[in-house]
Amino acid sequence: MDWRGKSASELGRAIGAGDVDPVALTEGYLDAVAASDYGPRIYARMTRDRALAEAIAAHDRAKQGVRRGLLDGVPISWKDLYDTAGVKTEAGSMLLEGRVPTQDAVVLANATRAGLVCLGKTHMTELAFSGLGVNPSTATPPNANDPELAPGGSSSGAATSVAYGMAAAGIGSDTGGSIRLPSAWNDLVGFKPTHGALSLQGVVPLAESFDTVGPLCRTVEDCAELFAVMGNTKAPDLRETSLQGSRFAILDPYASDVRDGPGSAFQSAVERLANAGARVETINLPAVDEAMRTTLSLYTAEAYGTWGKVIEAAPDKMFHRIRDRFRQGADVLAADFVALWQRLRVLRQDYYKATAGYDAILIPSAANLPPNVARLDSDDDYFVTENLLTLRNTRVGNLMGVCAVTLPTGVPSTGIMLMCPPGDDARLLRLAKAAEASLA
Known about the structure:
Pfam families: Amidase. The chain has about 450 residues and is an alpha/beta fold. The chain has 16 helices and 11 strands.
């Protein structure tokens, strides 16, 4: 069995059928990381002893017929901002060097109770504050389609651990697009749940008002199963899904004002959705445009409020471009911050009313293709402009407070994003399952 190309759910079914041994599977992933030159660029550290102990326990449960669920015994990776008891969690920053938590993050503890195997901690953008995935302080993982290109961030290692066959799935976080961007650029499915649907306890924060946690996977089914595992709930029923009669809206200018590669891939994907029975039209929403134009400082202010004292105590430890981005929040007045949040809540309600008649809103997952890492390293202006463009489309979902999923279009490093209202995570996953079939 070619286990490295299988989805987490396929591996779970194979374990249940007795075709795959969790211990051999885990050893295979650990060996794959050790044998690859890219291993140290994808994983910040492995949790080998923990992984093998968890795999042995899963093996015993499988033999006794008492598996805890579909994913019992499946090895996955965790972004290095999830607390792991007794193991360093540094969030890609030298500011947190040597930080060792005493207990697991809640979502990791839930996954462990469900029998999943923790392979290790993956590299990420420093403190999760960039969409490019470049981190000269620790490591920049290689893009799956071209190692010279940016992998997408901030969950860069989470995505590439899956794309390079070094984990069955990866767990990342998303504040402005950090699950969906690396998923799109590495041809994966990435799911950003509704803010608050999964616990943030034990997750190193960036801007908690926007932070979400979720999976980067090969399939929508994997996303649904991992969403359930992390939340200690039942996975949504993805059987008998269809796009027939569904109504989608393409949100402009976020679909038209994109570069040629993502634009043509998106149009091709939309045509396939329409061929599967979806009705598609184009809309413009002033509420989104105003939010995108006026509320960026909500991110920088909260991020700097969270990390400013730590940063200024040792500013030279930070990658200067990320440090500069944090510092943009230093001068935001408290009164302005409150007023912007009040306005954003109004704009969100306007958005929900305007989109209530649609099953999902569609836009390209990213307006650009992955840029060259060497040029990002050498050109400050290029880094800033590419980062802002990279995050533009995904940030719509975070600002509007919706749940969102990115699906591969079939064109390398491009994705199509579906967005549904907050709390509609199960319905979104069902739509995504039907869309996935039409895009295959």
